[in-house]
Amino acid sequence: MKTPDLRRVDAHEKVTGTARYGADRVPADLAYAMFAVATIGKGRTVAIDTAAAEAVPGVRLVLTRFTEDELRGPGFLMGGGFAFQSLQPLLSDVVAYRGQPIALVVADTLVAATEAAELVRARYETEPFAVGIDDEGATSVLQEEALSWFPDVKVGDAESAYAASPVQIDETYLHPAQHQVPMELISSVVEWRGDRLVVHESTQNAGALRHGVATQLNLDPADVEVISPYIGGGFGSRNALQPHIGPLALAARRLMRPVKLVIPRPQTFHTGSFRPVSRHRIRLGADSSGRLLAALHDAEHQTSRHDLYPAMFTEMTSRLYAVPNFGGRQRLVQTDVQTPGFMRAPMEGPASFAFESAIDALAYATGQDPVELRLANDTATDPVTGLPFSSRHLAQCLTRGAERFGWGKRDPRPGSMRAADGSFVGLGVAVGAHPVLVAPAVARMSAAADGRVTVGVDGHEMGQGIRSAIALLVAEDLGVPVRDVVVQVGDTRFAPQHLTAGAWGTATALPAVHKALRELRKHLGTGDTGTVDVAAAVRATGGGSPEVEVTSVGPGQPPEMLDRSRAGLFSAAGPVFPDFTAFSWVAHFVEVRIEATTRRISVPRALCVVDCGRVASPVTAVSQVRGGVVWGISQALRESSEVDGRFGGFLNTTLEEYPVAVNADIQEIDFDFIDEPDLLLNDVGVKGLGEVTMIGAAAAVANAVFHATGQRQNQLPIRIEHVM
């Protein structure tokens, strides 16, 4: 697919540095904040000595405790609240995990705040703690017993069908904890303008932040503004209210000065969420030809003591193939960490590594080509609900990808292919899927006498290109230049700003914008189609700049879901809708090379073919694919958050010690899109893209490593010692 000559609408701002992120604001009389954090794995603070910190020149406040009259708990996002975890630091002497904030220092300069925070000393009473899912003291619960609204997936009699299957695969896979490490650090600038609180923060959920901090401080949400025009990478780390906002707002009110906090990288490994460690037992039953008869996916993953972060692994694995009997069981393991959360392809990434590795093992066990086995088990109907898929072009992703990648030239024997330098060559394939979710949205649109069209809509610009997708839709519909479309997102002054995550940003915003375009055309008297001279049409109305407001919901969503969204609560629906089930689909093809002596693993080329419905913005879609594949390679070969069994918390909390894929790791990444609009889902025909591009990439790498070496890799990341 050829990328059209279209720049991102925000390209100039980003390249020239005029784009403004959360902490870029420097209002007059700005003060700077820094946290002091707990150095024990679990217990309570007996005493906190702040004398040395308060003596640092320029220090204005050292806050160690707020009363419940001042600051309330925010509630857990997945439990009907607003924050990534229910625990709010600085409300009690309890230390739930290492790295938990125990004091907030505010000073005239960042240097003074940092120095003073390091001088805060605490005495503790310690308690035994567990940071790993196998540690003594870790406790577990079955998810469907503890969280009945997240039931396990069960179709047919999977246990009996598996026991009777001629071919059986039974493997266990371990996926490590990982952190999102976005380029932009977690940061905020808060200020009071009279009784009005204004928060500048890079967030994926300005609505939850607004209502959450209003709840914490007993404010009217109308008196809270959250402004987040750009995010320097979210990937799930900014999905909800962060625990620093409430304390920061109280500090700013006490000082009557704006306050900025930029959390240092090591602290972000403990003050924000992370992808929890998970373990997956996959059992596949098939006949001798590789036709699936049964699949069982037993998973356990980490959560905190104070929240149950739900697992949703089997939602995807139960839909990948035509499996008549499927059994899923998910267990939550409570440990002494902050509440885990979402990280790009949060459940689907680890689940696809496990399930697609097992599918690859089944192909070898039955003597089938891995691509052909997947095609033979394709389905047009959701095996769980019996509903048709709104669209599913996974077979086309596989066949087009195999031809483009040169899969037919592959020697199927493990260890049989060598490069000219003696390196072992392996080719791997894997597929993935991501549920299509849709949230309610509000869109406001106006046209001006100078020909410009302004759109304010629910959505956040995290680098994924939602601005470009919206601007392109408006420009194509009206026949106006993209430069004449002004897009306002991530700002509670223009729309409620529901959480943007799970690849539902475009599928949520664009239908609302499309609906607003229909209404604007009515006001301009231009008909439903055709090019519009906006300036002339506005003048012809004789009534100033026409403005419209519309709302939209997902298929089958009741209108009251808009009220939840306006209240800052999670309101997404799907992937099961009244008449169909909706997923985006992907096929990954990867070549690995393993040096004969050093055993260093490299990925010289990768191909990703995606079915995401209509490609709304080709230039940003290509970036999404490449970014997802890079992250999949990093997931497979680099990233792991190592816990500290001695003192609690995580050990490798800097980018020097938490390796991610870099330019030297990335070579050729090819891509293709099916680009078939999904008009059952919405009038624009778009599904999600951002998450699915990563799903299956790590499995394809692992399967390629097996093809190169004959050694099955059941744990990520795959390191040199694993292929010696």
Automatic annotation (TrEMBL):
Keywords: Molybdenum, Oxidoreductase. SUPFAM superfamilies: CO dehydrogenase molybdoprotein N-domain-like, Molybdenum cofactor-binding domain. Pfam families: Ald_Xan_dh_C, MoCoBD_1, MoCoBD_2. Residues 16-128 form the Aldehyde oxidase/xanthine dehydrogenase a/b hammerhead domain. It comes from the Bacteria. GO terms for molecular function: iron ion binding; oxidoreductase activity. This is Xanthine dehydrogenase family protein molybdopterin-binding subunit.
